[in-house]
Amino acid sequence: MKPYVPTDDQIRTQFVSSLMNYFKIDEDVFLRSHIDELIRPIPASRYSEFLRRLSSGDFAYKTGVEKISLVAHELYENLRSPLEIEAHGRTQKLTTLMYDLRRQISETKDGEISASQRFENVRFSTIKHPDLSQNLLDSLDIEVVKILTKKWIYDHITDDRGLFEIKVFKIYLSQLLDLERNSQQSAISSATQKVLCR
Q1: In sequence order, what are the residues at sequence separation of 6 or more whose Cβ sits closer than 8 angstroms to the Cβ of residue 173?
Q2: Would the pTM of this model clear 0.85, i.e. be above it?
């Protein structure tokens, strides 16, 4: 008979219960869900480190949920690769820009052309940084916009920002991984050519 092995979801549920008990947080479906969301990116193999940081950190005047949030964020930041960090930063920049642009266009009245059409007519490759003469979006940003499509951005940027950011992040990460793979293949190919030409 095979030994019982709990799933990751079961382990996380138990860990959430343990954290709530430890901090004497009253059972509440919303708080439980919030704590579960906070620790979701942390793999179960790091839970002992999570507890160690909770007990050794300086959290004066913080509530239990605030302490959990701070440690979860700190651990998550340590787990992310440089490409994930770059994808996250680009996602935040693009999301803010698209949100502001949509708001500005929607607030400007034009009886002939709809706000959606005016948004789609914007040439994102020519948007300049306000203080500098350089473009705000580079070729990777423009490629991500093409994949998403301007229409999709306009239709979804104000619906659920969290879901919007998740999709944008995944596309950025995929594009960055492709660029890194192509760069490595190019370097290998170049090195191989040098060896063959000797």
Answers
A1: 83, 84, 87
A2: no
The tokens describing 25, both together, are 């947080």
Are 27 and 20 in contact, with CB atoms under 8 Å apart? yes
**What number of helices (H) and strands (E) belong to the chain?**
9, 0
Reported as a single tens digit per residue, the pLDDT across 138-153 is 999 999 999 999 999 9
Between the CA of residue 36 and those of 33, 90, 156, what are the distances in Å? 5, 26, 26
Tokens of 91: 């996602």
Say if residues 42 and 76 touch (Cβ distance below 8 Å): yes
Q: Is 77 helix (H, G, I), strand (E, B) or coil?
A: helix
Q: What is the pLDDT of residues 74-101, one digit of tens each?
A: 888 888 888 888 999 999 999 999 999 9
Give backbone dihedrals phi and psi of 138, rounded to 5 degrees, phi first: -95, -175
At residue 170, φ and ψ (nearest 5 deg) are -60, -40
